[in-house]
Write a structure and sequence with these properties.
single chain, 141 residues, mainly alpha, 6 helices
């Protein structure tokens, strides 16, 4: 799988996890957390859909989004610690930590250099022209 598709999949998974926690918070009556989770879930799902455009426009956009995803997932795990099964709590916390590691890895990953435009630059003459010029110079001598 290409790196871009993996990033898209990571944003999609984070969006789905956050969406699930948003609905759970809404059912429990915690409307502030529900609003936070649902709004960020929508953002994560939009980022997953428009990942190519975001990657072109913002060089380190993935780093910022991955950090936000890790903070959101860890906050979700911490806020539902008493209400969830311990295995689920540790699994979601591990996912949040892996998103944080992914953000750090993307921070130090090499960025492909932007190609500069070659408009207005003179082109090299073809080698056949050079040989013709050399023959003319040699024949004049």
């Amino acid at each position: 799988m290409k790196k871009e598709k993996l990033q898209q999949l990571a944003h999609l998974i984070a969006g789905i996890i956050t969406l699930a926690y948003g609905f759970d918070a809404f059912e429990l009556g915690d409307f502030a957390s529900a609003t936070y989770f649902l709004a960020l879930a929508i953002v994560f799902l939009i980022v997953a859909g428009a990942h190519k455009w975001i990657a072109e426009k913002f060089i380190r956009g993935d780093v910022a989004i991955n950090l936000l995803e890790s903070v959101t997932i860890i906050y979700a795990a911490a806020s539902f610690r008493d209400k969830a099964h311990p295995f689920l709590y540790y699994t979601v916390t591990a996912i949040g930590i892996s998103y944080f590691i992914l953000a750090i890895a993307n921070l130090f990953a090499l960025v492909e250099p932007v190609r500069k435009s070659y408009k207005g630059k003179k082109r090299r003459k073809a080698s056949s022209h050079l040989f013709k010029e050399q023959k003319l110079v040699q024949s004049d001598n």
